[in-house]
Write a structure and sequence with these properties.
Butyryl-Coa Dehydrogenase, subunit A, domain 1, Butyryl-CoA Dehydrogenase, subunit A, domain 2, 4 domains, 20 helices, flavoprotein, FAD
Length: about 600
């Protein structure tokens, strides 16, 4: 079993799946359809993906002498099975061949696939993000030719931002796009330059790969602007609509410590090796207007960040399941006070229980955060009033740095605890837990490192609007706290969440009052850690309130142990995790300049 389907049933209840399905966009679907999707994803994950998890860890993608990348046949077959099941098409309009299911359902299905096999499942998130961007910004001809094949799963997609010298500093990219003319797909350009760290940049899963590429467009006088001005977005397919191979070459593969099913490529445009007559420059078509590349690409990046958080959450949950099962089976030692007798399962030992409870609180809390964000994606587009749609968009933007970072960072801690439960056996290759630990290590890095997400939270999400979005979130948190009745077993949790909110509000007031951005930004990562803990603590409290209510009415869908388990995990998070916020916020509350004032020569 790769997931506990009761977790999704409970979270769907908490997130009001029935209310979501009542909206016009989703009118052709009901809970039976949703349940069927979850069952389908579970079968795919268990039967078609999980069996080759270990195989791709030891058999990386290969680059042949002709510049072609091949992946393990079972990986390619698994991706094709996902396509045949319609997973790629879930969130798209029916007019584009989609199923018009909620993001909440798609993200849940993708998460189940990730629990079975992260590397194979991740081809999906890149392709769906690529096609979603095109569906929102491209012309009808571009959508029909380049997005709809991805929706059908017969072409894959990538996003190409980073360059070897620039990394996340996108204003420093050197890729160039020179206007060549117009055709039925729009303004056609010739692109030259290099891109680095491109996931699924080349492979043999599908014949065609649709690349979305950021490049700078020179001014009419040939001048290329500094910074982000002129950065535009281009569709650069591996195979052009007329069947010609485009001028895109794989310069090499990056060999990773984990996450190896998904090839990571260095790519060059403009070598001229494959174009008729040897003419250099990859052919690409501009999406939208010149200079709009970054705003367009940020839609794909933000949705990818939710998917990265999902990957962390599912690896944490999978690791918890593995270590729990191991703890139930592995016998070692005896109960306290018993010098003789049969050895007991290690779950009988208090410290093992502590580690399991911590994993449960982290993994299930992370999944709640990601699915809550997926629900906000749906609300942003389909809520019944403009005010509700705007509120959802604002809250989603505020939460996105935490949705990406908190699950990925804390999954690593959770997997550390899972390894510890296994003991020396976990450090060996006899068990998959060591692979999950390595696979997750990428999640805090890609789609914006933890430090970049901390900068985003402070500069864009808190300081830019003067804390308005956070103030709205604080009101929601207080409303949840107010739902806890007198005598509830959750009274202490409500008090802990309230204290955490007050502490964070003090920190926000100081960050907003700081005159210099640089001084405020020195606290980015610890403030983001504290924010993530606050949000997860709030969501745990809200879930536990539901669990108490379901216990009171003896809801037959969930047994007593399941509901009590969620309440206990909530209480653990409030008791053991929330107090850590104080440590992270101490420098902010003290208005410390220790970090920013440190001379470089002291390092």
């Amino acid at each position: 079993m790769i997931v506990d389907k009761r977790d999704f049933e409970f979270l769907f209840q908490w997130l009001d799946m029935d209310g979501l399905l009542s909206r016009q966009r989703f009118a052709s679907h009901d809970r039976e359809v949703v349940n069927a999707v979850i069952e389908l994803a579970t079968r795919l994950g268990e039967n078609d993906l999980a069996p080759h998890l270990r195989a791709w860890d030891s058999s990386e993608p290969q680059l042949d002498l002709d510049g072609n990348v091949t992946v393990l046949p079972s990986v390619a077959g698994g991706v094709r099975k996902i396509a045949e099941a319609g997973i790629f098409a879930m969130v798209f309009d029916e007019t584009h061949g989609g199923l018009q299911l909620p993001h909440l359902v798609y993200v849940s299905a993708l998460g189940i696939l990730m629990a079975g096999n992260l590397g194979t499942a991740s081809f999906t998130l890149l392709t769906v993000g690529n096609a979603r961007l095109l569906a929102n910004y491209a012309s009808p001809a571009q959508i029909a030719t380049f997005a709809e094949p991805q929706i059908a799963g017969v072409a894959m997609g990538t996003m190409r931002l980073s360059e070897p010298h620039a990394g996340s500093s996108l204003g420093d990219i050197l890729a160039r796009a020179v206007l060549e003319g117009e055709d039925r797909y729009g303004a056609r350009y010739r692109l030259t330059g290099s891109k680095m760290w491109i996931s699924a940049g080349d492979h043999d899963v599908t014949d065609n790969i649709v690349h979305l590429v950021l490049a700078k467009v020179p001014a009419p006088d040939g001048h290329v602007a500094q910074g982000t001005r002129g950065i535009s977005l281009f569709i650069v397919p591996k195979i052009l609509p007329d069947g010609t191979i485009n001028d895109v070459a794989v310069a090499g593969l990056n060999h990773k410590m984990g996450y190896r099913a998904l090839p990571n490529c260095a790519l060059n445009f403009g070598e001229g090796k494959s174009m008729p007559g040897g003419e250099a420059g990859a052919i690409g078509w501009r999406v939208g207007e010149v200079g709009q590349g970054l705003p367009q690409m940020f839609q794909m990046m933000n949705e990818a960040r939710i998917s990265v958080g999902l990957a962390g959450a599912m690896l944490a949950n999978r690791g918890y399941q593995m270590s729990r099962d191991y703890a139930l089976e592995r016998t070692q030692g005896r109960r306290i006070g018993a010098a003789v007798g049969a050895q007991v399962p290690i779950i009988e030992h208090a410290d093992v229980r502590r580690m399991l409870l911590a994993q449960k609180a982290i993994g299930q809390g992370a999944l709640a955060l990601v699915l809550f964000s997926a629900r906000l994606l749906d609300d942003e587009k389909t809520a019944t009033t403009a005010e509700d749609r705007a509120a959802a968009a604002s809250l989603l933007a505020l939460l996105t740095p935490a949705t990406k970072t908190w699950p990925s960072e804390w999954a690593q801690h959770s997997l550390h605890l899972a390894l510890q439960v296994y003991g020396g056996a976990g450090y060996s290759q006899d068990f998959e837990i060591e692979q999950l630990y390595r696979d997750n290590r990428l999640n805090p890095i890609h789609e914006g490192t933890t430090g970049i997400q901390g900068l985003d939270l402070i500069s864009r999400k808190l300081r830019r609007d003067g804390g308005i979005a956070f103030a709205a979130l604080a009101e929601r948190i207080r409303a949840t706290i107010a739902k806890v009745g007198v005598g509830s077993s959750l009274s202490a949790v409500a008090l802990a969440v309230g204290d955490a909110l007050s502490e964070f509000e003090q920190a926000v007031a100081i960050l907003l009052a700081e005159a210099e951005d640089a001084v405020a930004l020195a606290h980015g990562s610890p403030v983001l850690a504290a924010f993530g803990h606050l949000v997860v603590g709030w969501l745990w409290l809200d879930q536990a309130i539901l669990a108490e209510a379901l216990l009171a009415i003896q809801d037959r869908r969930f047994d007593t142990a399941f509901l009590n388990g969620r309440i206990r995990a909530c209480r653990y998070f409030a008791e053991a995790e929330l107090p850590q916020m104080k440590t992270w916020l101490v420098p902010v509350l003290a208005r410390s300049d220790l970090i920013f004032a440190a001379p470089i020569d002291e390092f």
